[in-house]
C-alpha cells in the first residue's frame, strides 16, 4: 500500500466514475480561512448518486467546516460548488434545503414539545391554498399522514399516538425521526453529523440499520463519524481530512481500518 | 403530571366552593356569575395578548402601561380633539401596533433582553402618559357614545364579554391552526433549532409583541368605555394580573405550556378570587395579598407542571 503522507491526496474510484457520470454534488478547491486559521486548504469532493461517503479526521481537521459549507452555514473563502452540474452559491441553510441538501445535526434539531409530524414540517408546513405566511392554515392531517408514511417507508417503528411529543421518546427514536425527516426532504444529499455519538450499542445498531435502508433507497449521504466500526458498516467510500487538507479519498474495499487510522493521525501506514 | 394538568382547575374549583359556602346568597347567583364574566373581560383581552409573547419565548412588562396610556389617549382624542369614535379607537389600536413593533425590534434586532427592554419602554410610556395628561384623569366630556361599548349588550350579553370571546377566539385560531402560531411555539421552545429549520424567528417574535400591544391598548379602551373617563393608571394593575393568569393557565390542561384557553381559565380564576373577596368584604390589604400570593402560586404551579412534563 502506498505511503500517503507526501501531500498528494490518495485517490481511487471517485475519478473514474466522475468521468463516467456527472456527480450529484461536486466541491472544487474549497478554501476556508477563519482570520489567520486555514481551516480548509484546497479540498475537493465529489458525491455521486446513491453513495454514502464517510468523512473522518481528528478534531480540528476540518470535517465540520466542510459540512457547514455544504449546508450553507459557512461560505467558502474560495472554490466552487456544483449541484448536478450547476454552479451554486449556498448562502444559508434555506438555500441548501432548496437545493435538496439536508443536514441531520448532532443535536438533532427537534422541538421537544412538538409531535413527529410537527417536527417533520417545521418551517415547511403544508397549508391550505390561497393563504401564505403569516396566516397559512395548517393541513395537520395531511402532514401527519405524510410523516407517518415516510416513517413506514424506512421501517421506523415509533408510537404515533396523537399529540405525543418527541420529548417523551428515547434517544434512538429521536435520532430515527431526525434521520427520516432528512431523508424525506433530502432530494440531493443528506449530511449526517455524528449520527451515533449519543447512542448506546443497541440503539446505534438500529440507527445504522436505518442508514443502510436509506442508502438502499438511493439517497446520497456524507457521514461524519469518529466510530470506525460504524464507518465500515455504512459507508462505501472514505474521505480523510487532516489539518484542513484532504489526505485520502478511497473506496472502502481498497483500504483497511488500520490504514484509515494512520491517515487520520498522520502516522505512516504499515502493511 | 396530575398537578401539571389540573393544578389551576383545582385552585379555581376550590375557590368557587369556598366562596359559595361562605356566601351562597351573594356569590352563588346567576347574576353574580355574569358580573364575574363582565369584570374579567378587559383583563382577559390583555392577558391573551401577553400569552402570545410568552408563547414566543419573550416577556412584555409594558402591557399594563400601554393599557393605561391607551385609556387616557382615547378619551383625550374624543374630548379634546373631537375625533369620531371609530377613528379614535383605531388611532389608539394603531399606537399599540407601534409599541409592539418598537418592543419587538429592540428585543430581536438589538438583542436586548425582553425583560429589561419592555421595562424601559413601559417606563417611557408612563412618561408619554404624563406628557399627554399631566397626570390628571381626562373626563369624557364629548364622545359619550364610547360608554355604549362598556355598558351596552347584545341579546343580553354585555359587549365586553363579546369582545373578550372574539379576541380569545381569534388568538386561539392564530396560535393553533396557522403557521404563524406554529412558528411562535417553535421559537419559544427552542429559538436556535427554529432558526436553523428556516423559521423566521424575528418575525414571529415581533408579531407576538404587536398582538400584545393591540390587545393592551384594546384593554385600555375597554376600561375607559366602562369607567366613562380616562384614568391615567387604570391599566397598571393588569400587568401583574395578566402574568398571574398566563402562568395559572400554563398549569391548566397542558403541562406548563402557555396557551390561550389556559390563560382564559387563569383570568377566570383571578376574577373569581377578586369577586369573592369583594363579596366577603375583605379589606384592601387582603386584595393585594391575594393578587401577589396568586402570582407566586401561579408560577409555582407552572414550574412544577413543566418539571413533570419532562419525565
Topology diagram in text:
The complex is a heterodimer of chains A (271) and B (311).
Chain A: E1 10-11, H1 14-20, E2 25-34, E3 37-47, E4 52-56, H2 63-70, E5 78-83, E6 86-88, H3 93-98, E7 101-104, H4 116-121, H5 140-153, H6 171-185, E8 189-193, H7 201-216, E9 220-224, H8 228-234, E10 237-242, E11 245-251, H9 257-265
Parallel strand pairs in A: 1-11, 4-9, 4-10, 7-8, 8-9
Antiparallel strand pairs in A: 2-3, 2-5, 5-6, 10-11
Helix pairs in contact in A: 6-7
Chain B: H1 2-22, H2 30-55, H3 63-79, H4 85-108, H5 114-133, E1 138-139, H6 146-151, E2 153-154, E3 157-158, H7 159-177, H8 179-189, H9 191-196, H10 201-227, E4 229-230, H11 238-250, H12 260-279, H13 284-310
Antiparallel strand pairs in B: 1-4, 2-3
Helix pairs in contact in B: 1-12, 1-13, 2-7, 2-8, 2-10, 2-11, 2-12, 3-4, 3-5, 3-10, 4-5, 4-10, 7-8, 8-10, 11-12, 11-13, 12-13
Keywords:
heterodimer, A: 271 residues, alpha/beta, seven-stranded mixed beta sheet, four-stranded antiparallel beta sheet, globular, disordered N terminus, B: 311 residues, mainly alpha, ABC transporter involved in vitamin B12 uptake, BtuC, two-stranded antiparallel sheet, 13 helices
Compose a concise summary of this entry.
The complex is a heterodimer of chains A (271) and B (311). Chain A is an alpha/beta fold and 271 residues long.
Amino acid at each position: 500500500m502506498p505511503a500517503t503522507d507526501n501531500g498528494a491526496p490518495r485517490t481511487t474510484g471517485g475519478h473514474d466514475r466522475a468521468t463516467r457520470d456527472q456527480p450529484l454534488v461536486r466541491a472544487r478547491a474549497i478554501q476556508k480561512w477563519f482570520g489567520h486559521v486555514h481551516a480548509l486548504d484546497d479540498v475537493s469532493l465529489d458525491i455521486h448518486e446513491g453513495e454514502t461517503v464517510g468523512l473522518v479526521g481528528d478534531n480540528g481537521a476540518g470535517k465540520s467546516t466542510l459540512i457547514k459549507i455544504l449546508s450553507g452555514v459557512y461560505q467558502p473563502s474560495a472554490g466552487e460548488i456544483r449541484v448536478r452540474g450547476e454552479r451554486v452559491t449556498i448562502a444559508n441553510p434555506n438555500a441548501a434545503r432548496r437545493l435538496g441538501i439536508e443536514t441531520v445535526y448532532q443535536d438533532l434539531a427537534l422541538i421537544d414539545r412538538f409531535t413527529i409530524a410537527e417536527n417533520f414540517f417545521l418551517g415547511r408546513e403544508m397549508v391550505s391554498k390561497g393563504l401564505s405566511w403569516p396566516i397559512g392554515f395548517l393541513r395537520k392531517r395531511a402532514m401527519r399522514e405524510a410523516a407517518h408514511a415516510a416513517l413506514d417507508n424506512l421501517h421506523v417503528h415509533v408510537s404515533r399516538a396523537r399529540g405525543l411529543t418527541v420529548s417523551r421518546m428515547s434517544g434512538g427514536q429521536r435520532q430515527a425521526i431526525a434521520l427520516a425527516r432528512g431523508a424525506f426532504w433530502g432530494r440531493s444529499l443528506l449530511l449526517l453529523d455524528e449520527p451515533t455519538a449519543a447512542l448506546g450499542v443497541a440503539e446505534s445498531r438500529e440507527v445504522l440499520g436505518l442508514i443502510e435502508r436509506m442508502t438502499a433507497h438511493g439517497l446520497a449521504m456524507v457521514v461524519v463519524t469518529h466510530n470506525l466500526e460504524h464507518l465500515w458498516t455504512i459507508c462505501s467510500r472514505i474521505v480523510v481530512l487532516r489539518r484542513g487538507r484532504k489526505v485520502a479519498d478511497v473506496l472502502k474495499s481498497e483500504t483497511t481500518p488500520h490504514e484509515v487510522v494512520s491517515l487520520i493521525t498522520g502516522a505512516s501506514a504499515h502493511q | 403530571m396530575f398537578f401539571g394538568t389540573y393544578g389551576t382547575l383545582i385552585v379555581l374549583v376550590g375557590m368557587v366552593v369556598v366562596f359559595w359556602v361562605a356566601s351562597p346568597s351573594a356569590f352563588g347567583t346567576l347574576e353574580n356569575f355574569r358580573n364575574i364574566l363582565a369584570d374579567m373581560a378587559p383583563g382577559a383581552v390583555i392577558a391573551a395578548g401577553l400569552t402570545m409573547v410568552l408563547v414566543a419565548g419573550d416577556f412584555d412588562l409594558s402591557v399594563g402601561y400601554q393599557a393605561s396610556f391607551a385609556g387616557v389617549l382615547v378619551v383625550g382624542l374624543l374630548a379634546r380633539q373631537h375625533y369620531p369614535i371609530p377613528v379614535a379607537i383605531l388611532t389608539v389600536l394603531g399606537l399599540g401596533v407601534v409599541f409592539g413593533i418598537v418592543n419587538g425590534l429592540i428585543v430581536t434586532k438589538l438583542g436586548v433582553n425582553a425583560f429589561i427592554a419592555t421595562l424601559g419602554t413601559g417606563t417611557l410610556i408612563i412618561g408619554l402618559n404624563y406628557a399627554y395628561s399631566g397626570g390628571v384623569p381626562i373626563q369624557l366630556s364629548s364622545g359619550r357614545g364610547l360608554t355604549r361599548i362598556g355598558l351596552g349588550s347584545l341579546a343580553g350579553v354585555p359587549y365586553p364579554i363579546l369582545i373578550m370571546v372574539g379576541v380569545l377566539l381569534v388568538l386561539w385560531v392564530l396560535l393553533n391552526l396557522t403557521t404563524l402560531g406554529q412558528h411562535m411555539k417553535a421559537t419559544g421552545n427552542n429559538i436556535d433549532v427554529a432558526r436553523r429549520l428556516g423559521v423566521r424567528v424575528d418575525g414571529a417574535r415581533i408579531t407576538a409583541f404587536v398582538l400584545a400591544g393591540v390587545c393592551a391598548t384594546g384593554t385600555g379602551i375597554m376600561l375607559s368605555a366602562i369607567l366613562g373617563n380616562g384614568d391615567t393608571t387604570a391599566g397598571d394593575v393588569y400587568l401583574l394580573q395578566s402574568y398571574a393568569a398566563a402562568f395559572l393557565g400554563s398549569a391548566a390542561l397542558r403541562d406548563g405550556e402557555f396557551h390561550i384557553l389556559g390563560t382564559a381559565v387563569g383570568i377566570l380564576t383571578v376574577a373569581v378570587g377578586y369577586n369573592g373577596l369583594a363579596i366577603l368584604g375583605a379589606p384592601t390589604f387582603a386584595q393585594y395579598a391575594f393578587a401577589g400570593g396568586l402570582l407566586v402560586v401561579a408560577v409555582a404551579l407552572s414550574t412544577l407542571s413543566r418539571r413533570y412534563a419532562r419525565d
